[in-house]
Design a protein that fits this description.
Blueprint: H1 7-19, H2 24-40
Helix pairs in contact: 1-2
């Protein structure tokens, strides 16, 4: 899957991946899995407060 990231987001994620000795792809998978776990957490209710990336320009 290909994704387009804004340059500042790409730079940040790349830097964080390097600090944690992960590849860029590995770090993105790590971050997505963290979000999946947050959704599964007891008492978590998904709210419409997060921006919808599908509407980003």
């Amino acid at each position: 899957m290909k994704i387009r990231l804004p340059p500042d987001v790409h730079t940040h994620v790349k830097e964080m991946a390097a600090k944690q000795e992960r590849s860029l792809n590995g770090h993105i998978v790590f971050l997505l899995r963290q979000e999946m776990e947050k959704e599964k957490a007891p008492g978590n209710s998904l709210q419409a407060t997060s921006p919808d990336a599908s509407h980003a320009e």
